[in-house]
Design goal:
205 residues, alpha/beta, Rossmann fold, 2 domains, 5-stranded parallel sheet, 11 helices, HAD_sf, HAD_2, HAD family phosphatase, HAD-SF_hydro_IA
């Protein structure tokens, strides 16, 4: 028999916090095409994820400038103007999180791929981050999703039984990794869809 859910684990970026480099680079580039080319070929997701895994912002920036010296100004903007990539809390998810917190029925944790140097900026700005019972930040732990060890770290640190946990993330590879642990998971599309999925599980009404 399935065990009742006692713990809900949230991803943060693009689930609770609207982080997107396009918020910044639309101010810098004159066309969407130029911006998308830059984000695809220069300041890529793969490059950013190494900083999320613990490489310093300075080292990551300098390495990229060596490869693309003609883009130095725009590369430096990535972390130099990083706060401009924040679009605020995603209200629908924030409301769901608040409802779950106020119910008192669930332990609430976050498992996030996030640089340990930039996470304190968001922590200082967004009250909803303080509602969690614990947050595991990849940049601090020097590992990231979908590495199984990162999931295991959260389960062990907070004594969470995998069979009693629910994981929410917008990246399918991270969802697959959680399911390999036997963790029920929701692939986040938007707050309305998340609310429906939680209602199906009788977690919210």
């Amino acid at each position: 028999m399935p065990q009742p859910i006692s713990t809900i684990i949230f991803d943060l970026g693009a689930v609770l916090i609207d982080w997107n480099p396009r918020h910044l680079y639309r101010k810098i580039f004159s066309s969407e095409e130029e911006m998308e080319t830059f984000l695809r070929d220069v300041c890529t997701s793969d490059w950013n994820e190494v900083q999320d895994e613990g490489r310093s912002l300075e080292e990551g920036t300098n390495l990229l400038i060596k490869s693309f010296p003609q883009h130095e100004t725009n590369i430096r903007a990535y972390y130099g103007r990083w706060e401009e990539m924040l679009g605020g809390e995603i209200e629908g998810t924030k409301n769901i999180l608040q409802q779950l917190k106020e119910s008192g029925q669930y332990k609430l944790y976050a498992l996030t791929n996030w640089s340990n140097e930039t996470f304190p900026v968001a922590w200082a700005i967004y009250p909803s981050l303080h509602w969690f019972d614990g947050i595991v930040v990849s940049g601090k732990e020097k590992m990231r999703k979908p590495d199984h060890a990162f999931y295991q770290l959260l389960l062990d640190r907070y004594q969470v039984p995998a069979a009693q946990a629910l994981f929410i993330d917008d990246n399918i590879r991270n969802i697959i990794a959680a399911r390999e642990f036997g963790i029920d998971s929701i692939l986040f599309e938007n707050s309305h869809q998340l609310k429906n999925e939680l209602e199906k599980r009788s977690i919210i009404v």
